[in-house]
């Protein structure tokens, strides 16, 4: 049996194909003193598939509904020098996952927190989407409330990075319609469904076309929606002039140039020269 260091070990579990478990995760499953899972049945099933015995250990539940009651017990075990394993239902812990509260509490208590990386729906979707991956922003599940969701999408519309959303099959049609209204129907996207599973599907097309292509379909399974970044804003001379007027009322030339360049997505040197010229003209 492998020797496991004391601390909270966060292991990634497969999002579909059971063979996507890592060798290190299997070592931790075999050797940790205490096993904790968002879904105890899923973890026990995974261990059975890979021939990992419980050896008298229990798998304790930890989820949104019992986290506050479980954390003190688990922190006590950690303080006693135990190795505690936490596994999400699927994928990497702490990504839209109740494990964040446990990890945060352990960190606040000065206890070791270690990661055994592996499967992640976010990264799997980014790999197959065919959209820019040099800069991306994970948006999680959009809020259920219409007002909060609208605000989130308006903020997302101008983010200069590829966007990744989690969404349920029941609400994906609504989200696509709202994205068309907020981000534009021409924005490229990829709908990634049931990744690594038997019925894996990836649809790559503009948001408007995607909305029409699935409008009569009842989708099933886990969905990650990947949306291309906001196009660069092009500021005309009048917009630059007005922005500099406003900034120069409150800032120095250097500060105003930096602020306006960042806000309009323009080269700072060009904006600085425009600000200097503006000062001379006035």
Automatic annotation (TrEMBL):
The keyword Methyltransferase applies. Pfam families: RsmI_C (PF23016), TP_methylase (PF00590). Its EC number is 2.1.1.198. It is found in: Cytoplasm. It comes from the Bacteria. GO terms for biological process: methylation. Its main location: cytoplasm. InterPro entries: 4pyrrol_Mease, 4pyrrol_Methylase_sf, 4pyrrole_Mease_sub1, 4pyrrole_Mease_sub2, rRNA_ssu_MeTfrase_I, RsmI_HTH. It catalyses: cytidine(1402) in 16S rRNA + S-adenosyl-L-methionine = 2'-O-methylcytidine(1402) in 16S rRNA + S-adenosyl-L-homocysteine + H(+). Residues 8-210 form the Tetrapyrrole methylase domain. It is an enzyme of class 2 (transferase). GO terms for molecular function: methyltransferase activity. Residues 235-277 form the RsmI HTH domain. Keywords: Cytoplasm, Methyltransferase, rRNA processing, S-adenosyl-L-methionine, Transferase. NCBIfam families: 16S rRNA (cytidine(1402)-2'-O)-methyltransferase (TIGR00096). HAMAP family: 16SrRNA_methyltr_I (MF_01877). Catalyzes the 2'-O-methylation of the ribose of cytidine 1402 (C1402) in 16S rRNA. Belongs to the methyltransferase superfamily. RsmI family. This is Ribosomal RNA small subunit methyltransferase I. It comes from Roseinatronobacter domitianus.
